Amino acid sequence: MEFHTYPDRDMMMLRVSQRIAAELGETLRSADRATLSVPGGTTPGPVFDTLSGADLDWSRVAVMLNDERWVPEDNPRSNTALLRRRLLTGRAAEATLVPLYARTPAPEDALDALSDGIRPHLPISVLLLGMGADMHTASLFPGADKLAQAMAPDAPPLMALRAEAAGEPRITLTLPVLRAALRVHVLITGAEKRAALEHARKLPPEQAPIAAMLDHAQVHWAE
Ligand SMILES: O=C(O)[C@H](O)[C@@H](O)[C@H](O)[C@H](O)COP(=O)(O)O
């Protein structure tokens, strides 16, 4: 793991977006297509704001979430809506959104169709992850009902999970898909998450799922 500390959040968001743009650009120089996977939640918005203006051939970029809350796009907790509003706009409006949500009552109803949609876009070229103070990443929550299956080496690419801390049901990329990403960045802010990340490194991954992603990760932190 490489740990990068920034003087403030603005600087971090700018540098991380520049870094992601550069890595997508590198990928597109040697391949026809690139896949970017990003978290939802409250942290990455400013990265999206800058990244959406990057000078890239976005028409060759597929964008998918790490995970989604099972709520329609008009719900303020929809990660898909966040992506549309702050990343798939400006130059990045040319990118292809690979959906992690469908209007079905439960995520299980849409799992097969959504999984078929993501397979052609794997492996992920550039993965940006967030982390909760409980050490979850994507929707791999400690204590989630299907956490062990989602972290197993033979997990399908996408799974539906439920966890008390998650609120609504979730759909998430599984650990093998996340670990197969070619470049991994983790974006965290604040003292609580920094301490949680340090703690995670001493725990088994089923108690601290982020720990399973740290070996090749670049971690970016600002107060
Ligand atoms: O949908 C989600 O909740 C995310 O994808 C999730 O994994 C997120 O990255 C962390 O929960 C951190 O969230 P915050 O940035 O809001 O703290």
TrEMBL record:
The record's Pfam families line, in alphabetical order, gives: Glucosamine_iso (PF01182)
SUPFAM superfamilies reported in the protein's UniProt record: NagB/RpiA/CoA transferase-like
Q: Does the keyword Hydrolase apply?
A: yes
Q: Name one GO biological process term.
A: carbohydrate metabolic process
Extract the Gene3D superfamilies matched here: 3.40.50.1360
Which pathway features in its UniProt record? Answer: Carbohydrate degradation; pentose phosphate pathway; D-ribulose 5-phosphate from D-glucose 6-phosphate (oxidative stage): step 2/3
EC numbers, comma separated:
3.1.1.31
Domain of life of the native organism? Bacteria
Q: Which InterPro entries match?
A: 6-phosphogluconolactonase_DevB (IPR005900), 6PGL (IPR039104), Glc/Gal-6P_isomerase (IPR006148), NagB/RpiA_transferase-like (IPR037171)
Q: Which GO terms describe its molecular function?
A: 6-phosphogluconolactonase activity
The record's catalysed reaction(s) read: 6-phospho-D-glucono-1,5-lactone + H2O = 6-phospho-D-gluconate + H(+)
Keywords attached to this Swiss-Prot or TrEMBL record, sorted alphabetically, are: Hydrolase
Glucosamine/galactosamine-6-phosphate isomerase domain mapped to chain residues: 7-221
Q: Does the keyword Hydrolase apply?
A: yes
- Write out the function statement from the record: Hydrolysis of 6-phosphogluconolactone to 6-phosphogluconate.
Return the similarity comment: Belongs to the glucosamine/galactosamine-6-phosphate isomerase family. 6-phosphogluconolactonase subfamily.
Q: What is this protein called?
A: 6-phosphogluconolactonase
Q: Corresponding gene?
A: pgl
